[in-house]
Amino acid sequence: MADSDKFKNPLAEPWAKLVHLVHQSGGYSHIIAAASSFGKNVVPRAAALLDVSPITDVTGISDSNTFVRYILFCSLFNLMTRNLLFIANLMVVSYYL
């Protein structure tokens, strides 16, 4: 499926179409990408093709429908639940106390 010259360069549009095709063929419930510049570029486009809203800057996943996001305002963590297709950017973070 990904054997094409389109994927030699990190352009978001062909990669988003690939994510969409893989999801259609596999019927996955969760699609997760790293919160890198490439992941943050591909995930919104893939989410638009899948007709869902992306979840950005996820710092933890509690169960199949609950994820944790860090909120900069007041340094809080926010626990959210999503029952639809889960498409997210996952951040790797370290906290020093």
The total count of helices amounts to 2
Shape-level CATH architecture: 3-Layer(aba) Sandwich
Strand order of the largest sheet: 1-5-2-3-4
β-strand percent reads 25-35%
- Structural class of the secondary elements? alpha/beta
Number of domains: 1
CATH superfamily: HUPs
Mean pLDDT: 76
In N-to-C order, the SSE pattern is HEHEEEE
Q: Any idea of the CATH class?
A: Alpha Beta
Main sheet specs: 5 strands, mixed
Residues in helix, %: 25-40%
- Number of distinct beta strands: 5
Overall 3D shape:
globular
Radius of gyration: 15 Å
Task: Note the quaternary state here.
Answer: single chain
CATH topology: Rossmann fold
3D architecture notes:
This protein is α/β, with parallel strands linked by helices and 97 residues long. It has one domain (7-90): HUPs (Rossmann fold), CATH 3.40.50.620. It has helices spanning 12-26, 37-50, and strands spanning 30-34, 55-63, 66-71, 76-81, 86-90. The chain has a five-stranded mixed sheet with strand order 1-5-2-3-4, with helices on one face. A hairpin with a 2-residue loop joins strand 2 (55-63) and strand 3. The relative contact order is 0.20.
Provide a brief overview of the structure.
The protein is an alpha/beta fold. 30% of the residues lie in helices and 32% in strands. It is built from 2 helices and 5 strands, in the order αβαββββ.
Key phrases:
97 residues; 30% helix; Rossmann fold; alpha/beta
Task: Break the fold down into its secondary structure elements and pairings.
Elements: H1 12-26, E1 30-34, H2 37-50, E2 55-63, E3 66-71, E4 76-81, E5 86-90
Parallel strand pairs: 1-5, 2-5
Antiparallel strand pairs: 2-3, 3-4
Helix pairs in contact: 1-2
